[in-house]
Specification:
35% of the residues lie in helices and 15% in strands. By secondary structure, it is of the alpha/beta class. Strands 1-3-2-4-5-6-7 form a 7-stranded mixed beta sheet, with helices on both faces. It has one domain: Alpha/Beta hydrolase fold, catalytic domain (Rossmann fold, 3-Layer(aba) Sandwich). It has 10 helices and 7 strands. The N and C termini lie far apart (52 Å). The longest helix has 15 residues. α3 links the parallel β4 and β5.
């Protein structure tokens, strides 16, 4: 595998950004700038497609070089397999994970023969011409690299054997997936959520594989708020939205049941009337 490149910026606790194939780091363009205001960011880039465990080993080398002892990981697409290889293969430095449109640890992933067709499948909302060209730039320079990467995925680029480690994972994991993802089917996100006890799953309506594009303007704040609460363990500072975390059941299940005025019997709150918003 060609040498891994990376860009580090910002100050604070480290957050590692791991892109997937074939869309690369351009997917993080809107998220990196606000993240750099709160964290020390490390954005890696894979110049050549390779199996997930090889890529994970290269990322470990970057973390060693930077002296990172603890970090959060934000991974998109097949970068989610790299994040899983890092975390579930025993790298104790990995704390909170955010998996965006991630495949599971096993199984082949099919992509169209042409990168342009893959990009067309990946989004629901229209892409601007500049962004579309940026996503396809690398494969225009080296069409063979797309062919090689596609072959790696179709061969079953997996991190098999990690299912038991998933079940023992106690650190927080946020799984976000587009409801209309046509590259990694939404059922995969449900299986990941079921396998990882400390996970939280959210589906984004009208969003595809490039959910950071389709849900732009909301998902970035959700991710940063999740890291604030679960990675930094810092109190909410009214600097952004408050993320209501839905775990395994709705939040009103555990609310104290209010007493009705007419008969003094407990009244079950109506979920439709529950307010969701910033903390008072």
């Amino acid at each position: 595998m060609a040498e891994l490149t990376f860009v580090s910026s910002g100050d604070g606790e480290p957050v590692l950004f791991v892109p997937g194939f074939p869309f690369g780091g351009h997917v993080f363009r809107r998220l990196l700038a606000p993240a750099e205001g709160r964290f020390a960011t490390v954005a890696v880039d894979f110049p050549e497609p390779a199996p997930a465990r090889e890529q994970a080993e290269a990322v470990r080398g970057v973390l060693d070089r930077l002296g990172v002892e603890r970090c959060a990981v934000i991974a998109h697409g097949t970068g989610g397999r790299v994040a899983q290889a890092l975390a579930f293969d025993g790298d104790d430095r990995i704390d909170t994970m955010v998996l965006l449109a991630s495949p599971g640890p096993v199984g082949a992933l099919a992509l169209p023969p042409e990168p342009g067709d893959a990009l067309a499948l990946a989004h629901v909302e229209p892409l601007g011409r500049t962004d579309a060209e940026a996503y396809l730039e690398a494969w225009g320079r080296d069409p063979g690299a797309y062919v090689r990467g596609r072959a790696v995925l179709e061969a079953g680029d997996d991190v098999a054997g990690l299912e038991d480690a998933m079940a023992a994972w106690e650190r927080p994991v946020l799984i976000l997936h587009g409801e209309d993802d046509r590259i990694v089917e939404p059922a995969v996100a449900e299986r990941l959520n079921a396998a990882i006890p400390a996970s939280t799953l959210g589906f984004l309506p009208d969003s595809g594989h490039l959910l950071l594009d389709d849900a732009a303007g909301s998902i970035e704040s959700m991710i940063l708020e999740y890291l604030r609460a679960r990675y930094l363990r810092a109190p909410h500072d009214h600097g952004g939205i408050a993320l209501l975390q839905l775990e395994r059941r709705p939040p009103w299940v555990d609310l104290d049941r209010p007493v009705a005025d007419d008969d003094h019997e407990p009244a079950v709150p109506d979920p439709a009337e529950q307010e969701v918003g910033p903390n008072p």
